[in-house]
Amino acid sequence: MQPAAAKFDTSSLLLALSRYTSAVSDMEKTILLPSLLRDVPSDDVWDCEATQTFRDLHGSYLMLKAIRNTVESSPVPLDDHNINTALNKTLEPLLDTDPEVLFHFHLRGLFSVMSDLTKKTQSLTKKYKDIIGVAN
Amino acid sequence: MQPAAAKFDTSSLLLALSRYTSAVSDMEKTILLPSLLRDVPSDDVWDCEATQTFRDLHGSYLMLKAIRNTVESSPVPLDDHNINTALNKTLEPLLDTDPEVLFHFHLRGLFSVMSDLTKKTQSLTKKYKDIIGVAN
């Protein structure tokens, strides 16, 4: 079996994952005092409406780091409790779907969400610089 | 930026992708006369019902190879026409979902579909051996 590294270094999905972990790494290097992000409201609609709880920038910071850890090294949890009820209902019709369609659906979905999370990480890093008064 | 290879070689998703491409490679080495698979019906329900067209084992063989090519080197198509209408409707409620939930949803989904496709590839290789009368 050829090592995974040799086979996937040109994959766009892998590049999207790599770009994300680099953005989180930059965020960690920049944000030396994460506690300054506490109680600072997020501009993102989904931070308030989708989660139905208030998530401050500190919460976003922790979430972005946790996802990076999952991307880099965690096993994929097949009984993931992070899937909410609405998505569980969404999953039901997918179970009978042609695996080719399902493959493209999840590949595209994962690529897209990694791009969004990369932008969000860069935006959070910029907001921290604004808070401490460092020019971007 | 650290090379992607160094960061993701322990990722379970990457291992699932690697296992799949290895299974397709074995299939290609074994199936020297793919035309023998023509008009041989597939046992998989989704090959007939989900796609609403008859897909013989030769069709499955081509599909499994095409997915391997996408996994290994193709860019992720963001305007993918392989997403059917039912899945487009499924996508709509996902757009407002917390990206953390969406990330876990697609990570789990891609991991799961790669595992299914790996089993399917191994099963197709075994069926070819049955057809040509080689013991498994």
UniProtKB/TrEMBL annotation, chains A, B:
Similarity comment: Belongs to the SPOT14 family.
Protein name as catalogued: Thyroid hormone responsive
Pfam families recorded: Spot_14 (PF07084)
Record's subcellular location: Cytoplasm; Nucleus
Gene3D superfamilies referenced in this protein's UniProt entry, alphabetically: 6.10.140.1610
Top-level taxon in the UniProt lineage: Eukaryota
Primary location: cytoplasm
One GO term (biological process): regulation of lipid biosynthetic process
A GO cellular-component term linked to this record: nucleus
InterPro entries: Lipogen_MT_Stabilize_sf, Spot_14
Record's keyword terms, sorted: Cytoplasm, Nucleus
Signal peptide from the UniProt entry: none
